[in-house]
Amino acid sequence: MEQDYSFPPNLSEPPNTEYEEVTGAPNDGGEVEVEENSESLSNVEESQQVRSEPEVDEAPSSIVRQEGNPVNSHASVSHPAGVKVTSSGRVSKKPKYYGDETFLIRLAIVFHISLKKGIAKYGDRASEAATKELAQMVVYKVWSQITRKDLAKVNWASVINCFMFLKEKYKPDGTFDKLKMRLVAGGNGQERLDYDDVSSPTVLLTTVFIILAIVMMLEYFVVTADIAGAYLNARLKNKNLFMRIDPTLAAILVKLDSSYKDCLLSDGSLIVRLEKALYGCIESAKLWYELLAKTLMEYGLQKSSYDPCLFFDLSMEIYVTIYVDDLLIAAKSEERVRDLLKHLEIKFKTITVNEGSVISYLGMSFHLDRVKRQSKVTMDKYVEDVLQICEVNGNAMTSAHRFILYRSGFSIVG
Predict the structure, then answer these.
(1) Rounded to whole angstroms, how far apart are CA atoms 174 and 224?
(2) Which homologous superfamily does the CATH classification assign to the domain defined by 205-230+284-381?
(3) Domain locations in the chain as residue ranges
(4) pLDDT, tens only, 235-254
(5) 102 Cβ contact partners less than 8 Å away, ≥ 6 residues apart
């Protein structure tokens, strides 16, 4: 009799993949999918109006009508149709954006693209990006396989899901960079009480600007560096964390490595034991920070007591700021920067370096004018995204702008 290796009943079933209306359910990649059509958005707006208090011509249920006792005077006040009224009779006003579900849905549409929609939109390019992301997991040995005969050893209470989404990466100046698929673990399924401290610092913006000022004043050589697959270099301390990979992603893994075929469950999914700090696990950010900090200190740098993401050495005249996997490296000599980059490449393999008169860091573009010893900071792509999300058209001038232009000798019309 053939044993049935079906998905355990005490674990959430694989998510559905088809939706006809706006829901909060995950799609085949595990993330919330939103239909991009005006009908869906209008349904949300109508649903906001439906959620109202009892009819205004009736007393709220909490108010008992008693002979001779007046009922809440606000309850009898009539309001235009569609106006939300509280139990006390006040008109409920919602914020223009942050309390508006329509805005949140538009935000999801702009910044999140599921695996399914990514493939529908970009075709083979998206499929190749998904394959590349999973191939990276195999190379970094992010997990170990759990064969069907070893399923009895799995602690099903610690099994978490995962999902993959498409990221359209742009340069700070707004030009398209590349498509990036990202596999993320469902860290929300982990038991937080099992971890003491999972917080991880990021560099202060003040620190970045101070280093930039030093670069311009002392004519330092500066580059930015991005470490590929950063988290995947750190090992998990928890050896009993299991993850379910859905059938769509499991099929890609089987193509990359046929040995996964012996691990497939009856629904086509996989169960793996996590070994590395995959994105989404609640402890991943801290483990990665500790590894990177240790690597920089092994080189001879010391951590700043002011900012834990600033590393420096005054004798070597070098400064390094870190924001997750993005580094800003500035030193008096170019050779010192190159030597540190070589040290990092030995440890982390693939590093992308950006240098020149315009460098990008944290969504900002630094325009370095060595002659005038000054820098200009721009964030064109970020500004365009905010204007698009908030549906801002036209322009306006503040009193401060008028004053600055006036003091600068410009004539102001209007």
Answers:
(1) 18
(2) Reverse transcriptase/Diguanylate cyclase domain (3.30.70.270)
(3) 33-111, 112-195+235-274, 205-230+284-381
(4) 998 888 899 999 989 999 99
(5) 41, 44, 45, 48
